[in-house]
Amino acid sequence: MASSTLHQNLAFLLKPVNPIYNTGPRPRPTRATTTTAYVAIRCGPRSNRGPLMKGRILSIEAINAIQALKRAHKSSSSSSTTPDYSPLLSRLLKSDLLATLRELLRQDHCALALHAFSAVRSEYHNPDLSLYADVASALARNRMVEDLDRLICDLETDCGGGGIQCDDKGLIRLIKAVIGADRRESTVRIYEMMKRSGWGSTFEADEYVVKVLSKGLRRLGEESLAVEVKWLSRGNLEKLRV
Fold first, then answer.
1. In terms of C-beta density within 10 A (0-12 exposed, 13-18 middle, 19 or more buried), how is residue 152 classed?
2. Do 166 and 123 contact (CB within 8 A), yes or no?
3. pLDDT over 80 at 43, yes or no
4. pLDDT tens digit string along 139-195?
5. Which residues contact 213 (CB under 8 A, 6 or more apart)?
6. Could you give the CA distance from residue 212 to residue 191 in angstroms, rounded to a whole number?
7. Neighbouring residues of 51: CB distance < 8 A, sequence distance ≥ 6
């Protein structure tokens, strides 16, 4: 009797237990861990310029023109001949030509940008003063001071020897670019064009332009002109002449 009871107890203990009725703590399932390896890929050397701007800023025609200009310029560097860029630029619409010019300036390809600007001047007379300011800023940034002086002479030619648009927002940027490049004669030339347009006499001079121009002329050694700028800003030109 005792042996039969012991056998039944052993059978009960060895019987598998249904997990539904298991009230003890359940072991956590083990998850297989995977390790992902990342391989660093390095590209070749690049210049410090940004990528070409596509979409609404640059059209396909403008991008193709920029790339063609660069190829022609690169091939000409190994020879003594100067390529003719006009066929690449004359076929562009005005919007594409201006976009090409601004993109070349943004990438500091000033030599090519000057060819594009020449095409703008020949196709569309009297470009905006802001466009001159964009070219002048790029030339000053790259220390192409002789080209900067020629640019100011071209501006005077485009104005027919007269005045410039003194109410244009590009005027102050143009003045800053020329003064920042320490171009005394070009600064004086801009000031003379401003006077011929009636700046300070026919209409009131902007105070910020007066401050920047007078300070720049004084730094460049033109003390008398710096004083004259302040007098002109107050409408005292006739008093100064007397």
1. buried
2. no
3. no
4. 999 999 999 999 999 999 988 877 888 877 899 999 999 999 999 999 999 999 999
5. 175, 179, 187, 191, 226, 229
6. 12
7. none
